Every structure is written in C-alpha cells, then in structure tokens.
Request: fold
Amino acid sequence: MEAANQSPAPRRRVYGGYEGAPNPSERDRIVHLLQAYRSTESFNAHYLPKWAEASTDEGMKGGLRMVHAREGVHARLIRERLRELGETTFIEVSQERHDTQVPFFASRERTDLEKLAFLGHVFEDVDDFFKPITDLISDIKEDLQTREILRTILDDEYATVQWFARMQRGLSEGATQS
Reply:
C-alpha cells in the first residue's frame, strides 16, 4: 500500500498472462487464467466484508455487500469450472499481498475515500486492466462454456468498477463541501 507521501501503487492488470509450456493449448491458457482469477476473486471476497465493517458510510457498506456477494459467486463458479476441467489444486494470492492489502482495507484509520482512490488508481484504465481476459475470451474457440462464464463475470466487474468510481466521486464532492 502506499503511504501518504509515497507514489501510488503500481498499475497492474487482472492477470499477468500465461506462464507455462511453450505453445499452450486453449485449455492450458484457460486453466492458467482461471487459477489466477479465482485466487483474486476469492481474495476480494475475503477483504471486502472487513472494509464494510470498518466503513462509517451506510451507502458504502451497502455497495460493498453487493460487490462482496458478486466476488464470492465469481470465485465459487470459477472453482467449479476448474474442477470440471480436471483441476484439483488451486493457487491463492501471495502472502505479501494479503499482509499488505487486508490491513489497509480493514483499517478504520484509512478513509473510504483513500481506499477508493487506491482502487481508482488500479482501475484507471479499466479496459487495459481487463485486457488479458478480453483477449483470451476472443481467442476461445472450443470451450464456449468458459468463454461465456468469463464474459458474464466481466459484465459484473465493469459494474463494480463503475460503482467504485461513482462512490469515489460522491465522497470526493462531499469531502470538498465540508
């Protein structure tokens, strides 16, 4: 996380790209992405209720409850799809990310606006952020079930990012009016 006088967290994408055997099959690429994406969705579902508990804004709490529910559904659905594809082990986000971000989002000392600003930076170019997924979706020719699962999850993700941006604008405007 960034300290008050440090630069923002580096931009990242939802998925760093395929890492594995050369010339991966469609299934290899799908499984790799689903593993990484499921771990992130599961992590998000873990920290969002902690953020809601720390928030003093009732609107924020309500929206976070909805986002939490969607992230949990995404994680479960992706896990089910991975099992259907024959996967039996699952990766998780790094301990470093967990140890840094969970306390940040769970902190009562950090404002909702600070937390939203962090996410606003991460999602500043939302299309670029999700590009690895949209690229894979456009490449999927055989596993149509996974393609459509990913498409509909992305619909939810875009709605979530829009909500975060709307809340950030609203809290920023309220902060300047005080």
